[in-house]
Amino acid sequence: MRCSLVSVFSVLITVANAGLVHVPVVNEVLDSASPSSTSVAAQSHSVNGAEATSTSSSYWLADITHQGIAAFNTDPSTYVVFRNVMDYGATGDGVTDDTAAINAAISDGGRYGPSSGESSTTTPAIVYFPAGTYLISSSIIDYYFTQLIGDPNSLPIIKASAAFPATYMIDGDQYQDDGDEGWTATNVFFRQIRNMILDMTDVPATTGAVGIHWPTGQATSIQNVEILMSSESGTQHEGLFIENGSGGFVVDVTTSGGLYGIYVGNQQFTMRNLKISDAVTGISQIWDWGWTYIGLTISNCTTAVAVNTGGSDDQAVGSVTIIDSVIEDCPVFIDTAWQSSSHSNGSLILENIYLDNVPVAVQDNGDTILAGSSGETTIDGWGQGHKYIPDGPTNFQGTIAAPTRPTALLASGTSDYYTKTKPQYAASPVSSFLSVRDAGAKGDGTTDDTAAIQAALESAVSSSQIVFFDQGTYKVTTTIDVPAGSRMVGESYPVIMASGDTFADIDTPIPVVRIGTAGDSGSIEWSDMIVSTQGSTPGAVLIEWNLAATEGSGMWDVHARIGGFDGSDLQVAECPTTASVSATCEAAHMSMHITSDASNVYLENTWFWTADHDLDNADSTQISIYTGRGLLVEGENIWLYGTAVEHHSLYQYQFSGAKNVVAGFIQTETPYYQPDPDAASSPYPTNTTLNDPDYSTICSSTSGNCDALGLRILDSDTVFIYGAGLYSFFDSYSTTCSDDPGPEDCQSNIFSVEGTTSDLWVYTLSTVGTTNMVTVNGSALAPYRDNIATYADTIAYFTL
Ligand SMILES: *[C@@H]1O[C@H](CO)[C@@H](O)[C@H](O)[C@H]1NC(C)=O
Ligand SMILES: *[C@@H]1O[C@H](CO)[C@@H](O)[C@H](O)[C@H]1NC(C)=O
Ligand SMILES: *[C@@H]1O[C@H](CO)[C@@H](O)[C@H](O)[C@H]1NC(C)=O
Ligand SMILES: *[C@@H]1O[C@H](CO)[C@@H](O)[C@H](O)[C@H]1NC(C)=O
Ligand SMILES: *[C@@H]1O[C@H](CO)[C@@H](O)[C@H](O)[C@H]1NC(C)=O
């Protein structure tokens, strides 16, 4: 996260936001629209409230005994983690106004709302919606660390009343009296919305109602949500609105109708499996540095994807990558305002796109640049921007060679990459789950739960049960071994927290959670959890993955959070930025290690975060926590969708001897304290067994700061990166070095390709605060000044 980019976007965003919600303005795109006035009610969704409430459905997450505790809450014995909106007076009858009851379920218990502007790790909550139709007349106000979850077996319908105003049905960051969002959008972490229908079809089409307002940062997700809007001519409805923030993940979201299916801007984001139909503009990209769309299905929109915000001279969109998508019955797929120039705004990559009845594939300032057809056609590879193959930059706009995708990375029988949504075990009864608290773990943050958790994991595998981690902080003092066949799911991100002498030696890396041991085969599924450390733990490897698996083994919404929270002993008191480096604040050898034994590892929406600030401090005060390495990948057949790695001293991502990796969007930040000490003087000594970067060599050929690499690719084969943002905002906690448009000298190098690496394709690479965007075998290849785009510097297409 990065707090202070307000000035850069405020002008643009204010305009966009005003046009959107406060003062509905008919977008120019509407002029060419010809939507008929057919009602959305004619569509396939059943939005019959009476029918929904009478459906008796059960979902294990609702039915299981709720005994989670917020370990570091001021009163864990009374704080309620799991809240059913019915217990707060919601009726779900489709007639009664349930707004107040839903908001009471969210706010109950001294939680942190937007008016506080504060974050908190001590007030986690699941707010559960059983099947039913919940009528609302004003916004549902989301709080920090909140999971809004519906019954996946019978989706609850949140229905906006006919009098619903021009505002958000779910407001993820409510505007305050000072005219600004409550939270700094880049600081909003650890929240979800899943399994619900948002229905705006009773709201007059002329009212600018919005499904979800969602300015967020990392470790957030929206999953399995349908948004129903008016498709009447002149409709002002809008499905999803994001105006800023630092990342997040959206998957399996369907919208119908609306002026916009989604209207979104943020530094970087990953969205997968969006189905957008009957909107005037399917996706309007307000601004970004980078954005990765995987598996779009857009049908019957006037424009499928508009990336032309700002026009040719002031393109607000840095870059977009779209792969494995279907566009049907839209006059125009892409509307862009790109022009060949020394700037690289508006970079775009399209790969493996199927068009059916899309006459214009790409339109640039009104001109057809790539024709579509009235029938079926495919785009294998197309792009625009600056390319380096590997020398450059060369401006290009047109067909590009696409990589040959290894079959091992594909969904069986298709040319699309394999994907798998986070399992929710919707069909499993409560008896399929084994609660770790029932198995004797306390989760109170002080009891040593190592043995209880280990026993629970082994028992669950033998009984084919799914391990349920009730909310809690589970202190462990040695490695937890996760056997093949395990399935683990958390209740609002419970924490496994490593503590003690086992993890105290900086020269002896010890896994905290080990997924299989070398030579093991089989699969696991792991979701909705956090792995952390407590106090001085420089030997801790938070997750070590050794399992040789088949497709489908992986983790979803599992995060590393190192320092910066109550109970970590790594907060403002212990690790102020003014302290000199000491073992007290050395808190991990590595966040995650996918070893050379591992294969078929699927990561979706994971964030490996060494804290840069204290989440439980009212002022979000910065802290200095020292960790060694981020994500090291040495295995084969790896999917990394929507992953981020931040603030590790030696590197964020390193692919070393890896084979068959598909990744996008990947995002990194360099530690804010660097170069004091820099990467070469990191408290973590270089380990040749781990092929750590040798900074004395890497930095010798360039002047300037020698800070941690964001991405290093060493001796790897077949690596495809669909969107990367490698950011270095700080120099000893000052941001002068990353001020736009230069000098971009927080550090010299951030992306290093070395050794025998081959078949490497990098699309829409953006960097911040970095002098050389790419180095190959130590030679600087792409100076930032040749690729100035938005706030970030961007290259559309790099291949070796
Ligand atoms: C986010 O956008 C809003 C609306 O324009 C603006 O008020 C706010 O300052 C922005 N925040 C950040 C962190 O960019
Ligand atoms: C296409 O979308 C319009 C709204 O833009 C809608 O009225 C019409 O019914 C849709 N057509 C089909 C075939 O779905
Ligand atoms: C590129 O983006 C920046 C920041 O949004 C803007 O100031 C500049 O005018 C844009 N350049 C072009 C050529 O669009
Ligand atoms: C280097 O890493 C290897 C492999 O993880 C480990 O066995 C060894 O103890 C480490 N050595 C030092 C000095 O860190
Ligand atoms: C980088 O160096 C290695 C030797 O370590 C060599 O095999 C490879 O071809 C070089 N790559 C490039 C792009 O020069």
From TrEMBL:
Organism encoding this protein: Penicilliopsis zonata CBS 506.65
Keywords, sorted A to Z: Signal
Single GO term (MF): polygalacturonase activity
A matching Pfam family: Pect-lyase_RHGA_epim
InterPro entries linked to this entry: Pectin_lyas_fold, Pectin_lyase_fold/virulence, QRT3-like, RHGA/B-epi-like_pectate_lyase
Name by which UniProt lists this protein: Rhamnogalacturonase A/B/Epimerase-like pectate lyase domain-containing protein
Signal peptide segment: 1-18
Highest taxon listed in the record's lineage: Eukaryota
Residue ranges occupied by any Rhamnogalacturonase A/B/Epimerase-like pectate lyase domain in the UniProt entry: 82-304, 433-500
Transmembrane annotation, as ranges: none
